Amino acid sequence: MKKILSVLSVALLLMGCSNEDEKRAEQLYKEAQTAYQQGEYNRAMYLLDSLENNCRQAIDLRKAGHVFSYDVQLALEQDSLATADTMLIAVTKMINEMVEKCGFVYEKGEYDELGRYFIKGTDTQSNLERSYIHATVNEYGVVYLISEYRGGSYINHTSLRLTGSDKTVVTTASVPLENEGANYHFKNQGLCHETVTYVNDPALGFIDMQVSDKKLKAELLYKDEQKAFSVTLNEKDRQSISQTYQLGQMLAAQLKFSQQSKIAAEKIKLFQSKKKIKG
Predict the structure, then answer these.
(1) Strand 143-151 and strand 191-199: pairing?
(2) Distance between CA atoms of 159 and 117, rounded to whole angstroms?
(3) What is the DSSP letter of 200?
(4) What is the pLDDT of residues 88-143, one digit of tens each?
(5) Whole-model pTM?
(6) Given Cys at both, which of 128, 217, 235, 248 links 137, Cβ 3.0 to 4.6 Å?
(7) Dihedral (C-alpha) 220, 127, 165, 240: value to the nearest 10 degrees?
(8) How far is Cα 190 from Cα 181, in angstroms, rounded to an integer?
(9) Can you tell me whether residue 152 is helix, strand or coil?
(10) What secondary structure does DSSP assign to 94-121, as a single string?
(11) Dist CA 197 CA 201 (whole Å)
């Protein structure tokens, strides 16, 4: 008799839990539908997730919520696609305007995976006789700050130090001499050339902020940064580096929105196919 009563008690308890789950699940499902109709897709997904995780006994409503979630996720991705495409159009327009306004030149070598932009007159070939600093940026928004040394003998510089008129000092990452791809040396007509490249270095942002600082000082550091060679950083140099840095920000944003658009489009196809299967 005790065993029978025990079994009945458990059964009644489960029925109570089941009824409670059904009521809670029904409420959550209705709220999710309302949120969906109002365009609150993230809230709708939150409510459906709550239904799935907290109403384990409401099997039919959980199944319905699972199917409904495809509609919600599809709407979310359609929103994401529209936003990404709108931003992509806007940033592409800004890039094209800046390229034209600032006189950027686009170059891509035969074996290069990505092309690069630089402002006309700032490239190495146009400045073979002077030590200076310039910048280029690739199509993905990776910005290269480049220090160029010209002299009768090599100094073997490995970094660049910038000092503002307010005494703020910023030094680039050190590029070792062994890294011949980024610390390149050659001779031309008896003149020693050194080209050191710093990738997406914080010094770029510093120059962008200090673009109007006529007293901004640039020094090439060598011998373990114990010695320095001063380099002229004129107004055109500052402006071209600043503009290249800004173009890099736009190109990076363009890449981000392009990737977001592709991901959203792929997810839309996925959820549309899932809806067809369930339908």
Answers:
(1) antiparallel
(2) 23
(3) S
(4) 999 999 999 999 999 999 999 999 999 999 999 999 889 988 999 999 999 999 99
(5) 0.85
(6) 248
(7) -120
(8) 22
(9) coil
(10) HHHHHHHHHTEEEE--TT-SS-EEEETT
(11) 10
| Cα 249 to Cα 116, 174, 273, distances in angstroms | 14, 23, 37
pLDDT for the residue 4: 43
Alpha helix positions (H), the chain: 2-37, 41-54, 59-102, 203-209, 235-278
- Beta-strand relationship, 132-138 and 183-188: unpaired
Instruction: Give the CA distances from residue 260 to residues 133, 215, 252, in Å, rounded to whole numbers and listed in that order.
Output: 35, 42, 12
At 134 the three-state DSSP class reads strand
Q: Using the structure block, give the residue that is written with the tokens 């800046």.
A: 98
Q: What is the pLDDT of residues 78-88, one digit of tens each?
A: 999 999 999 99
- Measure the N-to-C terminal CA separation of the chain; round to a whole number of Å: 50
pLDDT band at 278 (very low <50, low <70, confident <90, very high): low
Cross-strand partners of 171: 161
Two structure tokens written together for 170: 């910023």
Largest CA distance in the chain: 109
With b meaning 16 or more CB within 10 Å and e meaning fewer, what string describes 137-149?
bbeebbbbbbbbb
Which helix or strand (DSSP H or E) is residue 184 part of?
A: strand 183-188
Exposed, middle or buried: residue 251 (CB in 10 Å: 0-12, 13-18, 19+)? buried
Distance CA 213, CA 234 (A): 10
Non-local (6+) Cβ contacts of 103 within 8 A are 119, 120, 121
Estimate the crossing angle of helix 41-54 against helix 2-37, to 10 degrees: 170
Question: What are the Cα distances from residue 32, in Å, to 13, 43, 48, 91, 129?
Answer: 28, 7, 6, 35, 69
